[in-house]
Design brief:
Elements lengths: L1 E4 L17 E8 L2 E8 L1 H14 L6 H15 L5 E4 L7 H13 L5 H11 L2 H7 L10 H13 L3 H10 L3 H4 L2 H8 L7 H6 L8 H11 L26 H11 L3 H8 L5 H12 L1
Parallel strand pairs: 1-4
Antiparallel strand pairs: 2-3
Helix pairs in contact: 1-2, 3-4, 4-6, 6-7, 12-13, 12-14
């Protein structure tokens, strides 16, 4: 994947470029269709060779520089893999870089990797424009659940909202198994990690429920202490109040923005806010 800056002006179907741009794109008729190819002139090749020498050390063998130059020339001919970025545009440069990387990943089979890349970089707009708005691929529910898990772990509230708007279902996602998994990969700097890892075993949901009851000083009975969500747990066991449980989880890992988002959709906002307040204290 390559990101190039865009010069001003164009003549016919050949894009006008300055010496500094080095790559010109022209449209050619090949096998019955028009194909845009990148072309690097001799002056451009000299400039690129100088830059390669600077980047890879002037003492690099000339044969290696020639090899790198040949790779650059080959890449330049792959127009679809090049993102032209307008320097005075409104989008930040990392948006252009991420867009270019996502283009290079591939077609619909790679959508999951594309979205996880966008989530990692925190670019909701890239995911929305390059994936969801294309409408050329329909995500399966298990794929949406996987992306929700990834977004929650990375605390990407904007992506959680985007996925739920697109068709993900928090009730479908939040099984006893997935909630147990979230609690067993707690951030080490969170208060919940210190409180729930006192035992020399994996955290179970009963541990979380009992902790909540202690925090609330006996005024709250947690559904997480029920046997059906612990030793009798089945993979498809789900909760009637997934948003409430995610508010508590978010509070325990000290993620107020995520807690606020889930709280806005809570079935019992007053009770849940009291629990979250107590946890944050």
């Amino acid at each position: 994947a390559v990101v190039s800056t865009q010069s001003t002006g164009k003549t016919g179907r050949v894009y006008n470029v300055t010496k500094r741009d080095m790559v010109a794109f022209k449209e050619e008729f090949v096998d019955g269709e028009f194909v845009i190819r990148g072309v690097i002139g001799e002056e451009g090749k000299k400039d690129i060779a100088e830059m390669l020498e600077t980047v890879f050390n002037k003492f690099t063998e000339s044969a290696k520089i020639e090899q790198l130059l040949a790779s650059v020339v080959e890449i330049a001919s792959m127009r679809k893999q090049i993102t032209i970025y307008k320097i005075d545009g409104s989008e930040p440069l990392d948006f252009a870089i991420l867009s270019s990387l996502m283009k290079s990943i591939g077609e619909s089979a790679a959508r999951m990797r594309q979205l996880k890349l966008a989530i990692t970089w925190g670019h909701e707009k890239v995911a929305k424009e390059l994936i969801f708005e294309k409408k050329d691929y329909k995500f399966k529910m298990e794929e949406l659940n996987s992306l929700l898990m990834f977004s929650i772990i990375n605390r990407r509230v904007e992506f959680i909202r985007l996925l739920l708007d697109y068709g993900a279902d928090l009730k479908n996602f939040l099984t006893a198994k997935s909630l147990t998994k979230l609690y067993n990969i707690l951030p080490r700097n969170s208060g919940a990690f210190r409180l729930l890892t006192r035992f020399d075993r994996a955290i179970c949901l009963r541990d979380v429920g009992e902790l909540m009851e202690v925090v609330m000083e006996g005024t709250y009975h947690s559904v997480l202490t029920q046997d059906k969500y612990n030793q009798d747990m089945r993979e498809d066991d789900r909760f009637d109040n997934p948003y409430d449980l995610m508010v508590i989880y978010s509070a325990l890992i000290d993620a107020p923005d995520m807690a606020k988002f889930f709280w806005e959709n809570s079935r019992t906002p007053i009770a849940t806010s009291l629990i979250a307040h107590k946890v944050f204290l």
